[in-house]
Amino acid sequence: MNKPTSDKERAIFFEITNLCNHRCIHCCKQWEDNSEIRTASYETLDKIVDTPKSHLTISGGEPSLVKDKVFYLLEHEQKNISINTNLTYWTKDDIDYFNSSSKISLNISVVSLQKDIYRKIVQADTYDKFLKNLTLVNKDNFITMVVNNISLSSIKFTVKTLLLMGFHNILVTPQVPTPNCSIDANKVMRIIKELHDEYKDISNITTQGYCNLEYCDHICEAGIGRLLIDTKGDVYPCAPIHRECKLGTIGTDIIVLKQRGQDFYYSYPSHLRDVCKGFLDSNNQVMVSF
Prior knowledge:
The structure is a single chain. By secondary structure, the chain is α/β, with parallel strands linked by helices. The chain has a single domain, classed as TIM Barrel. The chain is 29% helix and 17% strand. The chain is built from 8 helices and 11 strands. Strands 8-7-6-5-4-3-2-1-9-10-11 form an 11-stranded mixed sheet. Strand 9 and strand 10 form a beta hairpin. The chain is globular, with a radius of gyration of 18 Å. The two termini are 21 Å apart.
């Protein structure tokens, strides 16, 4: 499999704020110190725009809580943009704008479409607003379902309901292990395979991070295909492990960042390079098996 080299442009994954109106029990960034609310400055936004990239993903936290900063990037960025969102703070006008733009796509977090499970996971009373906005968005947008032990029983119901609503790009993945919530990843993968096989003629139901699986949407390219930039302007290969592997800052020469990202990727043995690094323990052992 050919891999990008240091002269290829990376996709930029930008954490525009750490502020979020949800407290999802499966959040892969629980290790972060969020005692201080952080939102990227306009100076950082300008640097994001100026950074060479193949694609920009705006994430958080929840981007809709800092709309002024999001729309600044939407106005100034020339590359295609994805927004990772729980969908709960956008207005109808916001969604109409997204729907009318060929440059913008949404990656919508759907933890469950069963209200009691949704509320238990996100620990917020936002289900009705979420569901209303879900009916408004363009159905070509992307759905991401991160599955834990609480939502496991609702995977099939949620996927089938999304298909009935008209969505057809659905990524389902087990959560990265966290101190307070875990998942039987093998069980999740079996369910995903069943759904993929049943609906493959009408939808794209996939998972991520495991290139040996026929229903894997994409493998880990942390460092070689993407770089993450947080609200402070620090640069990392990816979100779940970025406390341990800082590559530099947004002020570091992009060539240096690319090379350090490539060095990070190739620091893993070949059988682990394509595996989601969030599923590796401190000894680089895979914490789940398939």
